Amino acid sequence: MSLLKSSGEVSRTAFNRWADFYDSSWIINKITEGWDDYLIDLSLPEPILDLGCATGRLLRKLEKKGYKELYGIDISESCLGIAGKNTDREIVDLAQGYMETLPFKSGSFSTAVLSGVLHHLEKPSEVFDEVARVLRKKGILIICEPRFVWGPRQAINLVLEIFPVQGDRRFYSWKQIAILAERSGFLKKDLIGGFFSYILVFERC
Known about the structure:
single chain; alpha/beta; Rossmann fold
């Protein structure tokens, strides 16, 4: 059972406290801007599910791009409150809940996105299984994550095992993520690597 589920109130409190920080942080915006630009340039099949949508940063941009079937889920009611104010609720459907038990029917979505979310999950395999369930066959899963080389990543993860800072649990190499995703029935289709981050594209088999 993941931290977000077993200690939901603790995690929710942390994310609620930092809700206003996400959109104002220069560092976060600098990293996520490249992810968003890549995603917006794609012709993503709808409906689209933004997992851990936070304040709706990506959903806002997809809405402006012309997408009409957008869904977001997050653990934080404060983040969702901001997302609700900044998006058209006739286009963007927001839900509060856990990614380990998604409140959607099987085969509901054609695209799912985990943008800067995976490192918050204690046991991502449970989430991969749920994403596979709600995605249609040949559905697309896109994962965007910060990149750390082996040494610093190991040191950071050691600290996070003792003290999970603001919900951060573990950072992964792209190869580790590919192995986790493949165990849940995903096939890696593309890797876009950067100095500080990377994007992985999978297809549900």
